[in-house]
Amino acid sequence: MSDLTSLSNRLIILLAAASALGPAAMQILLPAVPIIKDTFQVSNDIAQLTLSLSMFAIAIGTLVYGPLSDKYGRRVIMLLGLVITFAGSMFCYFSTSIELLILGRFIQAFGGAVGLVLARAIVRDIYGAEEAARVIATLVMVMVVIPMLSPAVGGELMNQFGWQSIFIAIALLCILILMLTINYLPETLKEPVPFEGVRAMLLIFFRLFKSPAYCGYAFCVTFVSVVFFSFISAAPEIMVSVLDRPPTEYGYYFIMVPLGFMLGNYVTRYFGHRLELNQLITWGGFISVLGITLAFILLSSGIKHPLAL
């Protein structure tokens, strides 16, 4: 355990990068969606599948990698996921049709989900409860902020080298994280945990859904996530078709989203000792609804500016 702790800083950097890889790879393509639509001469709904099916692939991956890593170990499954992400990225780069691009994005996202799952599992393997909470908080911050900044990076890559260059960038990032994993990530699973089967897993899900408290908190997160992902799905097309802005500009306006997240995170930490959890959630939900309402009023009033979104 002492050997693992001595690698703490390098491990945290590695795990932060791995956990951010999947979401970053998903969102870095956002500014290119209108260009992809025009390139392959498809509808916006079809082009959006490069995003929506990526989300679905990440959801599947989060269910798969956990049991696999419990049985075969964290290190080998992390390496497997990174290789899949690299393969998916190169598949996207060489895609000659929208169908192949969507398939490549699915593969890329499925592989990228490995960091989301295993980063936290590895932290729990290594650290005690208090230290694990601190490290996971850092991972969550990186996991959210970096993907939210990635559309700006994607916009610049697209502007300078074409939208296909985005996949080369993700592939190179995969190689970097893969090399760091090979060199700095030891096996942290002490002993394999047998997988009890799909039926046992479904029974656990069923018990959770019978809990009113769990459903209440889960639905709060779900509704906010639905609004967020609906926004990032529609915003690139709105920027181009409705607001008459270049696709690259979307990434820079999108930076306001992580700034809002960081501000909300700071405010939550500040009031965390002053308000109860349910009060914080209520205020957060109220502010979210207020923001949505304000955007609706501004756009309905004819104010066609990206800041209105």
List the helices and strands and how they pair.
Elements: H1 2-6, H2 8-27, H3 33-40, H4 44-47, H5 49-72, H6 74-93, H7 98-126, H8 129-161, H9 165-184, H10 198-209, H11 212-242, H12 247-254, H13 256-271, H14 277-300
Textual characterization of the structure:
- There is one protein chain.
- The chain has 309 residues and is an all-alpha fold.
- The chain has one domain: Growth Hormone, Chain: A (Up-down Bundle).
- The chain is built from 14 helices and no strands.
- The relative contact order is 0.13.
- The model is unreliable at 1-6 (pLDDT under 50).
Count of domain modules = 1
- Give the number of helices: 14
Say which CATH homologous superfamily is assigned.
MFS general substrate transporter like domains
- Uncertain regions: pLDDT < 50 for 5+ in a row? 1-6
Question: C-alpha Rg, in Å?
Answer: 20 Å
CA distance, first residue to last residue:
49 Å
Question: What's the assembly state of these chains?
Answer: single chain
Describe the biggest sheet? none
Q: Helicity range of the residues?
A: over 70%
Named CATH architecture = Up-down Bundle
CATH topology (fold) name: Growth Hormone, Chain: A
From the helix content, strand content and strand pairing, which structural class follows? mainly alpha
List how many beta strands DSSP finds: 0
Percent of residues in beta strands? under 5%
Following the backbone from N to C, one meets helices and strands in this order, namely HHHHHHHHHHHHHH
Q: Label the overall shape.
A: globular
CATH class: Mainly Alpha
Mean pLDDT: 83
